[in-house]
Amino acid sequence: MLGKNYDLQDCSLARALESLGERWTLLIIRDAFFGVRRFSDFQAHLDVPRAVLSDRLTGLVRDGILVRRPDEERADRHVYELTNAGLDLWPVLYSLLVWGRRHRSPSSRTYRHAACGGLLNDRGACPACSTTPAPQDVVITPKRGRARQRKDPVDVALRKPHRLLAPLAT
Amino acid sequence: MLGKNYDLQDCSLARALESLGERWTLLIIRDAFFGVRRFSDFQAHLDVPRAVLSDRLTGLVRDGILVRRPDEERADRHVYELTNAGLDLWPVLYSLLVWGRRHRSPSSRTYRHAACGGLLNDRGACPACSTTPAPQDVVITPKRGRARQRKDPVDVALRKPHRLLAPLAT
What torsion do the CA atoms of A135, A139, A143, A146 make, to the nearest 10 degrees? Predict the structure, then answer.
């Protein structure tokens, strides 16, 4: 067994990985940026066992990356949303995505600056505007002609252009 | 048991995490940026069990992130160095470090542009030069007055300013 902590590593990167390094955690955070907020939607999109998802969400709330609020549309249910610390993970997510599309497989989505439609470059900046948009100013769109592997409600809702962090209509 | 792969996630971030998402992997890559190249030095600096370190290094070589070469100074030994795909992970490492120092604990080191001594900003750019230095143009220096938890050869070698990727004299 490997412990979850890296106690002997005096390094802010090691500290970050203590909150982010478990399996599924970064994909849950990715989905939160996509606008997923409900337990059932995370589960449907990630195919992750309920117990694992519950453990990861609890940890992310404890660590101040997600906040759990009452669901205004469904009594006795909750939604999970990124805190400011969670929103600050956007450069981490985007840099992993850029590495993955360069060295693993092409991205299934485009990332554009909402204000002008410009494609973000590898540093997450809009070259047309010379700004680095905050995630809520980024629109994701599935690439045309790409075979869709999934048919869950989150995947279906993301088939149209979607602004990051806007709650998904599932 | 959770499998290592995220087969049903059509996402370049999920593909990236298949190579990077296991425990210790990103800390091994961090050490490779610091100039660690030998098995014994990774082990001394990370306190990671030999079997785990061996498994992670083998995976990183298989995945094209590290390359294993004969050690010119020690017969029958090898060194591990970052490939071009590995070097492209610098923005991932730096963004995790920035998040960790903002939301977890202050960094134990400063990151400066070698050419001018300017402190890198949160995007990894040198504000003085308006460039984003490649990692080999970044110098790390331990912060003064910081109590050092570790006394292994890698930690000792890193007590002086050190240019990233330059092989450590251990």
Answer: 70
CATH of domain B13-86: 1.10.10.10
Contact between B53 and B43 under an 8 Å Cβ cutoff? The reply is yes
Spatial neighbors of A6 by CB under 8 A, at least 6 apart, are: A14, A15, A17, A18, B27
Cβ within 8 Å, pair A99-B91: yes
Chain A contact present for B151, CB below 8 A: no
Domain map (residue ranges) of chain B: 13-86
**For residue B64, which amino acid is it?**
G
Under the banding of pLDDT at 50, 70 and 90, the label for residue B143 is confident
Predicted local confidence at residue B53, as pLDDT: 97
**B167, B90, B150, B126: which is closest to B159 by C-alpha?**
B150
Taking phi over 0 as left and psi of -120 to 50 as alpha, with beta for the rest, B152 belongs to beta
Contact criterion met (CB < 8 Å) for B13 and A26: yes
Do the Cβ atoms of A15 and B104 come within 8 Å?
Answer: yes
**pLDDT score of A62 more than 70:** yes
Cα–Cα dist A81/B162, whole Å = 40
Q: Which residue(s) pair with B142 in the sheet?
A: B109
- Number of Cα atoms under 13 Å in the Cβ half of residue B152: 16
For A103, name the nearest residue in chain B, comparing CA atoms only. B85
Of the pLDDT bands very low, low, confident and very high (cuts 50, 70, 90), residue B146 is low
Per the model's pLDDT, the better-predicted residue between B22 and A10 turns out to be: B22
Residue B1 pLDDT exceeds 50: no
Inter-chain touch B106–A12, beta carbons under 8 Å: yes
Residue A4: predicted pLDDT: 63
**Percent of chain A's residues with pLDDT above 70:** 94
Instruction: Write down the ipTM of this complex.
Output: 0.93
CATH 3.90.180.10 is right for the domain spanning A12-86: no
Chain A residues with CB under 8 Å of B5 CB are: none
